Amino acid sequence: APIRRFNPFTGYSVLFSNAAGEVSFSPDLSNLPMPGALQPGDTLHFQLWHREFDAATGGMTSNTSSAVRVLFR
Fold first, then answer.
1. Are 65 and 50 in contact (CB under 8 A)?
2. CA-CA distance, 37 to 31, in Å (whole number)?
3. Are 39 and 32 in contact (CB under 8 A)?
4. Local structure of 64: helix, strand or coil
5. Please, which residues bridge with residue 49 across strands?
6. Is residue 48 a contact partner of residue 62, using CB atoms and an 8 Å limit?
7. Three-point CA angle 64, 69, 73, nearest 5°
8. What is the pTM of this model?
9. Which tens digit of pLDDT belongs to each residue from 6-52?
């Protein structure tokens, strides 16, 4: 906590996956949706929330990726 979102309201657009189902994201570290600037030693956690096809129901569902931790030096 706190949770911050990269979305159109914070200057980022919706991402789409390629044919292999991969998504690439390179945030602008000078425009993070959080108060204050990054400092050396700060650790942020990132996780992707996405929609995907659910074969069991034949419809769409939402899911999250594994999270990654990034230490800024």
1. yes
2. 9
3. no
4. strand
5. 64
6. no
7. 150
8. 0.65
9. 888 877 888 888 888 888 888 887 777 777 778 899 888 888 888 88
